[in-house]
Structure formats: structure tokens, C-alpha cells
Design brief:
mainly alpha; about 400 residues; 16 helices
């Protein structure tokens, strides 16, 4: 399809897709207590449900470039919307924890593939507006992270927890409609992705690149902390004496900070020679936030939450660097798969390790030592990850 409004249609598709890549994660954790009254949720279930998002996002990073060898980006993103809708919709009405986990796998795998497929779509259809569309992509991704925990408990009060979860299945269904229309009309990309390169020579080249590994590690350790906070921040706050409504609001706040900064960081990263000063400052904020939450949580819980939110805002920055540091659309697809694939596999260990430490060890310091150590490593690798020039 060649028309004046084709770019606008693709932008709408990117907006809808990006928004739907997180609600299935952050819209669930505030409802776990309510779910537990209807479905028996064991400690094993809680550990697995926290580990699944980064684990499946990581696996998706390695699967998606292979899918590009056989299918178009438009076909893949339509399939992603279907997987998310079916997974989130059906899991909301089942009574078995095992089936709930299985359907979560379907939805989260779709979200993971969507994480990887959107950047090369941006590069293909808007090669001269990468920073702007990356801002749109990252901003809507963060918006889809922020809204669900804020409204999950109020929605459950009106619709019960199942109805609260079904809202996000409905949002994903809108994505099916939008991308079905785009897939039928087949707008012509301005920069084509070569299937013979994606996942092939480009991926082999990245494996040998220290900067690619550094960017993967920086992204992975950011997500490591993201998913720990997404899963455990409400629990940490309620254990410190705060009520569930306040804890849910703080989870929304910790996701709101990357949302706000996500609209600024892509453009700022494009103008700066290196983004390492930003990462260094954010690492400091993350460390101070953790220390405050650990030692004096009651003193300033909102401040600690804001600092944690700033600290995890290196994730939208990392997504931007994937597109800015890529030489072409195919290089962007390969780098996106490599960075997010390895990074999310690294991140999958975070909720599992943290869950084990806070549930089986009497003292809290080992859990906080792990997250503070991860922050120190991220600070160290950021200088190489953010260096100017193509990877």
C-alpha cells in the first residue's frame, strides 16, 4: 500500500502494540492476594510467575530473528497481538494455577516477541525518524507498565480480580484489529530487512563484540531490577507496615518515572556523544533507593520509590541505544534480539533469587546485597555500552 496516511497507520499500530507489551505483568502483582482467596497460590507459583516474564522475553530474543527468516514483521506482530489476547483472556477465567501459568507463558511469549519485533519495524518504516518513533515506542511501553498497577485494585473492587485481568485482554484485542488491517493493506517499508542477515552473520558478529555484550549486560541488569521491583515492591512495603492500596500506588509510581523519562531520554541520547553520565547518575539513584527501602523504609517511602524509578529508567535508554547504534534495519533486528534475548535471560534470575532470599533467609541484607551488587556491575559496563559509534 502506498498512500499519504500509511505512515500514520503504522504509528497507530506501534502505539497499540507497545502499550500492550506490559499490562499482563504489572497488572497482575497487585491482585495476587485477592487471587489467593479463590485459587491456592503456593510459594512455588509466586516464584515462577515472577520469573516467567524475563525468562520468556529472553527466549523470545533468540526466537524472533529466526521468525524474520520466514515471516514479515507485520505478520509476526499480528500473531503477537493474538497470543497476548488469548493468553490474558483465558487465564482470567480458569481456576487451576498450572493452567494459569501455561496461559501466562503464551501471553508473555507474545509480549517478548513484540519487544524484539517493534524496533526493526520502526527502523524499516521510519529510518529517518528513529529517535522520534523510539520515543513513541518507549513512552507507550512505559505507559502500559504504569497504568495497570494503578487501576488494578480499584478495577478488582468493581469487577473482581478476574474482571480486572480481562480489561487488558480487551486492550490487546484492539491490537488485533489494528494490525490485521495493516497486514491486509501491506504498507511498503522504506528500508527492507534482509532475512539472510538477521540471526545469521549479524548475530555471529555481535557475539564477538564487547560493546554488544556490554549493552546486553546493562539492559539485563536493568531488567533484573525491574522485575524484582514489579514482583516484590508491594510485598516489601506491606511487610514494612504500609497497606495494600499504598503499596499498589508505589508500584504504579515506580513505573511512572521511566514513563516520564522515556519521553525525554531517546532524544537526549541522540544529542549526547555518550549516555554514560545518565546511566551513572541513575545507578546512584537506584543504590540510594534500595538502601533507604532496606534500612529506613518508613522514613520516606515515596522518596525511595522515586529514586528506584529513576534508577530503572535506563531500560528505555537501552531500547533507544539499540536503534541509534545500529547501522541498518537488519542490524537493528539482530542487535535487538541479542541484547533483549541475553538480557532478559539474565533478568529471569532476579525475581527467583530475590524470592528465595526473602522467603528462606531470616535477614534481609542478602537480598539487598544482590541488588546493590547488580547496580555496581551495571555502572561498570555502562561506559562501554554507551560509547558512540555503531555496534
Amino acid at each position: 500500500m502506498k498512500s499519504a496516511w500509511a505512515p500514520a497507520l503504522i504509528v497507530i499500530g506501534i502505539v497499540v502494540a507497545a502499550f500492550n507489551l506490559r499490562p499482563g505483568v504489572t497488572g497482575l502483582s497487585p491482585l495476587l492476594d485477592a487471587m489467593g482467596s479463590d485459587i491456592h497460590l503456593s510459594a512455588v507459583f509466586l516464584a515462577i510467575i515472577g520469573m516467567l516474564p524475563p525468562l520468556l522475553y529472553g527466549l523470545s530474543g533468540f526466537i524472533t530473528p529466526r521468525l524474520y527468516n520466514r515471516f514479515s514483521g507485520l505478520t509476526i506482530i499480528l500473531a503477537v497481538m493474538i497470543m497476548i489476547t488469548v493468553g490474558l483472556g483465558v487465564r482470567a477465567v480458569v481456576d487451576s494455577p498450572a493452567i494459569f501459568l501455561g496461559l501466562s507463558v503464551l501471553a508473555l511469549l507474545g509480549m517478548g516477541i513484540g519487544n524484539v519485533v517493534v524496533p526493526p519495524i520502526v527502523k524499516s518504516y521510519f529510518p529517518d525518524r528513529v529517535a522520534l518513533l523510539s520515543t513513541v515506542h518507549v513512552g507507550l511501553l512505559q505507559l502500559g507498565t504504569f497504568i495497570p498497577p494503578l487501576v488494578a485494585v480499584p478495577l478488582a473492587g468493581r469487577l473482581e480480580w478476574r474482571g480486572s485481568l480481562l480489561v487488558w485482554a480487551g486492550a490487546a484485542a484492539v491490537g488485533i484489529v489494528v494490525w490485521a488491517v495493516i497486514a491486509v493493506l501491506k504498507p511498503v517499508p522504506r528500508a527492507r530487512v534482509s532475512a539472510t542477515v538477521v540471526g545469521g552473520s549479524e548475530l555471529r558478529r555481535l557475539i564477538k563484540s564487547r560493546r554488544a555484550w556490554a549493552l546486553m549486560t546493562m539492559t539485563g541488569l536493568t531488567s533484573f531490577n525491574n522485575f524484582i521491583l514489579f514482583t516484590w515492591l508491594p510485598t516489601l512495603l506491606t511487610r514494612s507496615g504500609f497497606d495494600a492500596v499504598f503499596a499498589g500506588a508505589m508500584l504504579a509510581l515506580v513505573t511512572a518515572i521511566p514513563l516520564v523519562l522515556g519521553f525525554v531520554l531517546p532524544l537526549l541520547a541522540q544529542k549526547m556523544r555518550t549516555a554514560s553520565p545518565i546511566v551513572a547518575a541513575f545507578c546512584l539513584c537506584l543504590a540510594v533507593g534500595y538502601i533507604g527501602l532496606w534500612l529506613i523504609p518508613e522514613a520516606a517511602p515515596v522518596l525511595w520509590t522515586v529514586l528506584l524509578g529513576i534508577g530503572i529508567s535506563t531500560f528505555p535508554l537501552a531500547l533507544t541505544l539499540i536503534t541509534l547504534r545500529s547501522r541498518s534495519a537488519e542490524a537493528s533486528a539482530a542487535l535487538s534480539g541479542f541484547v533483549q534475548g541475553g538480557g532478559y535471560l539474565m533478568a529471569a534470575t532476579g525475581p527467583l533469587i530475590f524470592a528465595f532470599l526473602i522467603q528462606s533467609v531470616d535477614a534481609m541484607w542478602p537480598a539487598y546485597a544482590v541488588v546493590l551488587a547488580s547496580t555496581a556491575v551495571k555502572f561498570t559496563v555502562s561506559f562501554s555500552a554507551c560509547r558512540p559509534g555503531s555496534i
